[in-house]
Design brief:
By secondary structure, this protein is α/β, with parallel strands linked by helices. The protein contains 18 helices and 16 strands. The chain has three domains: 239 residues, Aspartate Aminotransferase, domain 2; 38 residues; 101 residues, 2-Layer Sandwich (Gyrase A, domain 2), CATH 3.30.1360.
């Protein structure tokens, strides 16, 4: 008898069950995920809060779908204090940002329409969207010199039914802010595709490195800016939030008129909280100061613990004997369009088509008359369907060679098979050695395809997992007495780490080590002067 949209899995998960058991056993719990500010030891001006709730004005009922003017003025005052100007006519009060989201979803979306959400993000969106019959489509945030939006993936995610882009500024949980360059690109996308921007700014005031502007002044695209007391003043129990509408004037007027009807249907704001809003907003100064002090203290604590760790190492083995080696994840290929502008031959590859081509040629050979999936193409790596080859009585090395030949025929530059790598039978070239180093006995039969440089296995965006320098370009940094400070431009690879550290330790390098000792980065051996001041 219940609607499909409420068909949630309501059974407790393993964590909740374990937690309940732990609690019922009366055992102590150190909950590092506690996020209720009223239970995290912050000091509130309780007198001011209680007095604010006693306003005699609360005894009268003067409903306004957008919220009481005095409360909206307080919201505008919050922005004015930040140096930003908001018209009270553009503000609509809600009991929470979650309610504001639901009003906006109702305003923008028919059942089945889509909104794009950042990933990673916070989990409430799924429920909000389910309840409004809206579909969420994720767009990735990537970590590369800090968190950023993958704009190519974002644009690729925009479809016929997309109505808007949700932006969390700064994002929860990555903590990164939307830059002005991001905003320009988001505005361009919204204008080009007729989308609205929904900016959640509940954490806007909590930047460690200074202020970041609110999107409440954004006029370039239809924009909704959301915030509320729950985070700004650490008062989630007061249920006071707002949304601000900005953008092209005609659109804005129409959006506000429609939102007013949605809000008027519920009139969910109550009088005491609206009358108390100016005082509650004032609470933010004390709350934010305490919270930022705590965040900075936590960072300091992290530094202190790292220092303690190095002190410990110092005491145990002496800092002179501690070396640190750091590296990082691989790079990516340039976007084919950008590469082509530089006259670098580059291409977007239709992997589905390529995979069909390879499977058809294998089917023609091994299962004539039947179309069989002999490979699962994880471009440029082919995983072989061992059952299909077993049915055709083909053994591993023959199957892999046949797949490799079909891949070449379909346009790949070359291939290395699992059996070939296992036997170490690769040409003695730089490329052959790279593939040999990538050998793993794990998993089913496979063939590693060699693609042309700057070939990307998708119609948009970029890719990695190739043997080319743009992919393999990673930092390699050393700290410690045996190293001389400087930046070195000689060829070096992460595999050189093992050889270098082994040489410094005076031990044999690991059996399969193929790296070299990075002698250029090693400090000259320290010699003790002889008694007469002469060097030996
Ligand atoms: C990014 C973000 N937006 C909105 C909310 C919910 O705020 P409210 O209490 O106003 O519904 C949260 C709560 O954690 C959040 O992390």
């Amino acid at each position: 008898m219940f609607a499909d949209r409420t068909r949630w899995n309501l059974t407790s998960n393993r964590l909740s069950k374990a937690l309940a058991r732990h609690r019922s056993g009366g055992r102590r719990l150190l909950d590092l995920s506690a996020s209720n500010p009223t239970e995290c030891g912050f000091h509130y001006d309780t007198g001011a809060i209680m007095r604010a709730l006693c306003s005699p004005a609360s005894l009268g009922y003067h409903p306004d779908p957008q919220g009481l003017k005095s409360a909206r003025e307080a919201v505008a005052g919050y922005y004015a204090h930040r140096g930003e100007y908001v018209f009270i006519e553009d503000v609509l009060l809600t009991t929470s940002t979650s309610e504001a989201y639901s009003f906006i979803f109702r305003l923008l979306c028919n059942p089945g329409d889509e909104l794009l959400i950042p990933t990673p993000s916070y989990p409430l969106f799924d429920f909000l969207a389910d309840l409004q019959d809206v579909k969420l489509k994720p767009y990735p945030l990537i970590y590369d010199h800090g968190w950023q939006i993958d704009f190519h993936a974002l644009e690729a995610a925009i479809g016929e039914r997309t109505r808007g882009i949700i932006l969390v500024h700064p994002n929860n949980p990555t903590g990164h802010f939307t830059t002005l360059m991001d905003l320009a690109e988001l505005n361009r996308l919204c204008s080009a595709h007729g989308l609205a921007l929904i900016a959640d700014e509940v954490f806007l005031d909590f930047g460690i490195k200074g202020r970041s502007p609110s999107l409440s002044a954004n006029r370039e695209a239809p924009t909704f800016t959301l915030s509320g007391l729950s985070k700004i003043s650490g008062l989630p129990q007061m249920k006071f939030a707002w949304l601000i509408v900005s953008g092209p004037e005609d659109w804005k007027r129409e959006a506000l008129a429609r939102l007013e009807v949605i809000a008027d249907t519920y009139l969910s704001m109550n009088a005491p909280i609206q009358h108390a809003a100016p005082a509650f907003l004032k609470q933010r100064h004390g709350f934010q100061r305490q919270l930022m002090e705590r965040v900075l203290a936590n960072l300091e604590e992290l530094d202190r613990q790292l220092a303690e760790f190095f002190n410990f190492l110092g005491h145990q083995v002496g800092l002179a004997n501690v070396w640190i080696a750091l590296s990082a994840d691989h790079g990516v290929s340039s976007l084919p369009d950008a590469a082509k502008k530089l006259r670098i031959p580059a291409a977007n590859i239709d992997v589905g088509k390529l995979s069909n081509q390879i499977n058809s040629s294998l089917s023609a050979r091994f299962s004539p008359g039947h179309s069989t999936s002999f490979i699962n193409f994880d471009y440029p790596l082919a995983w072989l369907n061992q059952d299909a080859f077993a049915d055709a009585h083909v053994k591993e090395s023959d199957a892999e060679n046949a797949v490799g030949a079909a891949m070449k025929q379909a346009g790949l530059r070359g291939y290395y098979t699992k059996s070939q790598l296992a036997a170490g039978e690769v040409p003695d070239t730089a490329m052959g050695r790279l593939f040999l180093n990538s050998y793993s006995p794990e998993g089913p039969w496979y063939v590693m395809g060699v693609i042309d440089p700057y070939n990307v296995g998708s119609s948009k965006g970029t890719d990695h997992a190739t043997p080319y320098s743009y992919d393999r370009h990673v930092p390699l940094a050393f700290y410690g007495l045996p190293f001389q400070s400087g930046t070195y431009y000689t060829h070096a690879e992460p595999v050189d780490l093992a050889a270098t550290l082994a040489a410094l330790l005076g031990i044999n390098a690991p059996t399969h080590s193929v790296g070299r000792v990075l002698t250029e980065a090693l400090a000259p051996p320290h010699r003790t002067p002889t008694p007469g001041g002469k060097q030996p």
